[in-house]
Protein: NAD(+) diphosphatase
Amino acid sequence: MMYPLSFAGDGFDRSAEERDQADVIYTQAETRSIALWRGKPLVEEDRLVRLPVDHEIFDDKGDCIYLGRPEGQPLFATDISRWEPADIEDAALGAFLDDSRQIHPLLPSEQSFIDMRAMLTVLDPFEADIAATAKAVLEWQRSHGYCAKCGDKTEAVKGGWQRSCSACGAQHFPRTDPVVIMMVERNDRVLVGRGATWPEQMYSVLAGFVEPGETIEAAVRREVFEETGITVGEVHYAASQSWPFPSSLMIGCTAVATSDEIRIDPEELADAKWLTREELALVFSGGHPEVAPPRKGPIAGRLLANWLAATRD
Structure:
């Protein structure tokens, strides 16, 4: 069973060796930039919109990063979050799934800023890789304006891929947070949980951040036990996925539980349950009375779909 996986393409030409010359490259006639507003990329149909860097929309630009040459042409990503739409939907912007669109008055109506989660299966893998990189690095730029060592202001250098502190000389780089996400099975059943803030009927496999000093296997066992009281034995790597919310790497694993009784941590989960293979088939078909089908794009759905499609021992 093939299941779509977003933000997991083969990458693109980031031209890291050119980052020292980003300021010069920015002035070249063929250079283009994608635009992001509050982390939402500017999209037309299934493509990121590439604009000339001297477009009026960038007159009041914020942070800017050099992405490289994804298609042989220099490409930047520019934050325009200083723009204030006339009719902003604050409730939609704060929702778990933001389905609002923002249209800039200087752009055609078919071009709009759309939440990345809403674009999970719309953008092709190549475009999604670019969007994920832009969002993650611009989010890092926004939140790292001051030096973590001395507290003084930092300056973006190397095309936005580094921040330097002139006061103490410290150099800061974008970070990626490793997250384990695991399909836990036992006796032909899989373990799923519902986050405390998630919509009703939205269940998924368990996940959690890897802590300092941990291996992937140890993080899987710890997270599963902390959230559900289930103990885990074997752990195997399955696949990975960039997850720019804000800047994580999802490390997909399969694991075999060694216990059955669920004792949830109410601060982490609202509920957790075992699903048989037949019940999971109902979930994917949309026929389960308590569990909605997984969203297309996230790695959780891929892990569950692969397990469901596997031949039983």
Observations:
- The chain has six helices and 17 strands.
- The longest strand covers residues 232-243.
- The mean pLDDT is 93.
- Residues 125-143 form the longest helix (19 residues).
